[in-house]
Design brief:
Low-confidence stretches: 1-20
Oligomer: single chain
CATH topology of the largest domain: D-Maltodextrin-Binding Protein, domain 2
Number of domains: 2
InterPro entries: Solute-binding_3/MltF_N
Structural class: alpha/beta
Keywords: Signal
Distance between the termini: 60 Å
Strand content: 15-25%
CATH superfamily of the largest domain: Periplasmic binding protein-like II
Radius of gyration: 20 Å
Protein name: Amino acid ABC transporter
Pfam families: SBP_bac_3
Largest sheet: 5 strands, mixed
CATH class of the largest domain: Alpha Beta
Number of helices: 11
Length: 272
C-alpha cells in the first residue's frame, strides 16, 4: 500500500511539473542544433538559424523568455513528454505516427524533399529526372531511423530497399561510399551535403514530396491554440519578412537562387 501511495505521489508530482510549464515565464524550445540553416550555432556556440529566430518571435508573441535546449532529433519527443522542454520547433515533419505522442500545430513550412544520389549510381543509370530514379527497381534508400522520408520512399519508389542508420552523418556516408544509392532529405540539407561532397554525389532538385513542418507540444497543451493563431499571421504580422531579411542570403549561398519562399510553397497560397 505504501509503495502504491509513493508511486501515486511521484506521478502526481511529475504531472504538476509538466502541467505548470505552460504558465511559466520561460518557454523552453527543443531543437537539434546540427541542421543549418534552420538549427545550428554561430562561431561563439550560440544557437542561431531560422528555427531559432522563429522561436524567439513566438516567445515575444507569448510574452515569454525563450530558452533554446539542444536535443538530439531522435530524443526530442521523449524530452518534450517528460517536461524537459515545452515545445519542439525544429524542422519536425507532421506525421500520423508522431501525432499519437504529441499535439502538432498547423504547418508553418513545407520542406521540399529532394534526393542526394551516389554519383556512380547516378551516372551508371543515366538519371536526369526524379521519374528516372523512381522507375529503377530496388534502389537503396537510406535515412536515420527517426526520419519520415523513408515513408515517402516506400510510397513512391519501385520496390525500394530501405536502409536505416543512426544519424545524418552515417546516412550521407552511405551515399558517398556507395553503400546506399539515395538519401531523401530536405532541400537545404541535401544542397549542403552535395556542396560538401561534389565528387561523390549528385542532387535532383525536383522535389519528390513536400514535408509539412509544425511545432510539437505535449498532449493537451494550451499552447497549441496560441501557436496556431501565431502561425496564421506569420505573413501579415511580418515574421516571414523577418526570416527573409535575416536568412535569404544564407539560403542562397546553400541553394543558389533560392529564398525563404522555397519553404513556403503551399503555405502563402493557402493563407490567401
Amino acid at each position: 500500500m505504501k509503495k502504491i501511495l509513493m508511486l501515486f505521489v511521484a506521478m502526481l508530482a511529475i504531472g504538476l511539473l509538466v502541467g505548470c510549464s505552460d504558465d511559466s515565464n520561460v518557454l523552453k524550445v527543443g531543437m537539434d542544433l546540427t541542421y543549418p540553416p534552420h538549427e545550428t550555432v554561430d562561431s561563439d556556440g550560440n544557437p542561431t538559424g531560422i528555427s531559432v529566430t522563429l522561436a524567439e518571435e513566438f516567445g515575444k508573441y507569448l510574452g515569454k523568455e525563450v530558452q533554446i535546449v539542444d536535443v538530439p532529433f531522435g530524443s526530442l519527443i521523449t524530452e518534450l513528454n517528460i517536461g524537459t522542454i515545452d515545445v519542439i520547433i525544429g524542422s519536425m515533419t507532421i506525421t500520423e505516427d508522431r501525432a499519437l505522442s504529441v499535439d502538432f500545430s498547423n504547418k508553418y513550412f513545407n520542406f521540399p524533399l529532394v534526393t542526394l544520389v551516389n554519383k556512380t549510381f547516378y551516372d551508371d543509370n543515366n538519371i536526369e529526372t526524379k521519374e528516372d530514379l523512381l522507375a529503377i527497381e530496388n534502389v537503396r534508400f537510406v535515412a536515420p531511423k527517426t526520419f519520415a522520408t523513408l515513408d515517402v520512399a516506400r510510397e513512391l519508389a519501385n520496390n525500394p530497399v530501405i536502409r536505416e542508420v543512426n544519424d545524418v552523418t552515417a546516412a550521407v556516408l552511405e551515399v558517398v561510399t556507395g553503400a546506399s544509392d539515395v538519401f531523401l532529405m530536405s532541400v537545404g540539407n541535401a544542397a549542403g551535403q552535395h556542396l560538401a561532397n561534389p565528387d561523390t554525389t549528385e542532387i535532383l532538385m525536383d522535389p519528390l514530396s513536400l514535408s509539412p513542418i509544425g511545432m510539437a507540444f505535449r498532449k493537451g497543451s494550451n499552447l497549441v491554440a496560441e501557436a496556431n493563431i501565431f502561425i496564421a499571421g506569420l505573413e501579415t504580422n511580418g515574421v516571414y519578412d523577418i526570416l527573409r531579411n535575416k536568412y535569404n542570403s544564407v539560403i542562397d549561398s546553400n541553394i543558389p537562387g533560392a529564398t525563404l519562399d522555397i519553404y513556403l510553397q503551399g503555405i502563402i497560397d493557402e493563407e490567401e
